[in-house]
Amino acid sequence: MTTEKPKKIDPRSTLNNMQDDLHEGAEMLSHALEWPIFPGPQILEWRKVIPNSLTILALFVGLSSVYFGMEKEFKYSVWCILTAGLLDGLDGPAARLLKGSSRFGAELDSLADLVNFGIAPAILIYLWSGYQYGAYGWIICLIFAVCMACRLARFNAGVDFNASAAFRNFFMGVPAPAGGALVLSPMILSFQFGDRVSLLGFSFRFDDPIYVMPVVLFVSMLLVSRLPTFSSKMIHRSLFGPIGPFKILLAIGIVTGLLAVLIKQTWLFALGFYAVYIATFPYSYWIYIQNSRNKSK
């Protein structure tokens, strides 16, 4: 009786087969995510990963604010929202600078904005103040989140303003990052000046829903309003003009300086930003009216 000898396994052949399988799986995953893992035909380039990675990082940070809110660490929560706002301001310029814009990135950015500046702040406001009004406080916070969704849907649908050159410098209503930051202003006031303050012999708490809920409704109205507000592109063109290496370095220096001030005097810096931003509303409306008149002539 003869026994069949076992076949010898060629390590090189096995390794090559494993590499082929791994490469094929990586290509399938790359197409699904629109991210390149291995270079090849019809796979997006690495330059598109950088802006999308910034968006995903912002989403991680924004969602972390909810965790800190449930732990009653509201300062860390607000820090997360502000950091998500900074990251949101970087992914767009990074995509344009690297020529890495994509439909996937645009959709991901919009969904991240809804979470970071709509859902997360609504939950934080309820955990910090709205719970004192029970279901009524929750409904008001829901109104803010829904208005944020409507604002983003309107922007994505391209129905903000007439596409003519006279209107391209404006947003219709307050943009999502600004709305998410403005609705947290009562929390930031309490961080800077304390939970209870006295003014002209009148003592009040910043977390009192009687003051917080009107702020939430007011910011919700700004989100879905037709108020023309300056866009970041307009401000950039006015201050810096066309992009160049020197201006990129200058912008990096300005951002670094602002971050240094933000880290040292976080809440005072944020309040100053709010004041300056709100002060631009009358001016932006006046500029918009002037552009409209010039366009109609």
TrEMBL record:
Example of a GO cellular component annotation carried by this entry: membrane
Subcellular localization(s) per the UniProt record: Membrane
InterPro entries: CDP-alcohol_PTase-I, CDP-OH_P_trans, CDP-OH_PTrfase_TM_dom, CDP_ALCOHOL_P_TRANSF_CS
Keywords, in A-Z order: Lipid biosynthesis, Lipid metabolism, Membrane, Phospholipid biosynthesis, Phospholipid metabolism, Transferase, Transmembrane, Transmembrane helix
Bilayer-crossing regions: 49-70, 135-153, 165-189, 209-227, 239-261, 267-288
Top-rank lineage group of the source organism: Eukaryota
MF-aspect GO terms: phosphotransferase activity, for other substituted phosphate groups
One GO term of the biological process aspect: phospholipid biosynthetic process
PROSITE patterns: CDP_ALCOHOL_P_TRANSF
Lipid bilayer topology: Multi-pass membrane protein
Family: Belongs to the CDP-alcohol phosphatidyltransferase class-I family.
Name of this protein: Phosphatidylserine synthase
Species per Swiss-Prot/TrEMBL record: Planoprotostelium fungivorum
Organismal lineage: Eukaryota, Amoebozoa, Evosea, Variosea, Cavosteliida
